[in-house]
Design a protein that fits this description.
Blueprint: H1 6-10, E1 12-15, E2 18-21, E3 25-36, E4 42-53, E5 62-69
Antiparallel strand pairs: 1-2, 3-4, 4-5
Amino acid sequence: MRNVSVGSLFGSIVARDESITVSEFKLNAVKDCQFLKIWETWQKGKLQIRIFIYPNSHQPNNVCLEFYPDKSISI
């Protein structure tokens, strides 16, 4: 079996005689979730997931996760 990267699959899009180079893909999703805080209770909120893929670059691909609580936490 051959290893195939996202860049080799989607580095360019070909339609008839035209080729379009793709420099990056971005995926952004927001999901309801809960996080368990150590020694505390579950914290409800939203998890934002951002994925960046750079198929034609030596730039590293990135995944960013950010949690936004439904209620403010007082410290």
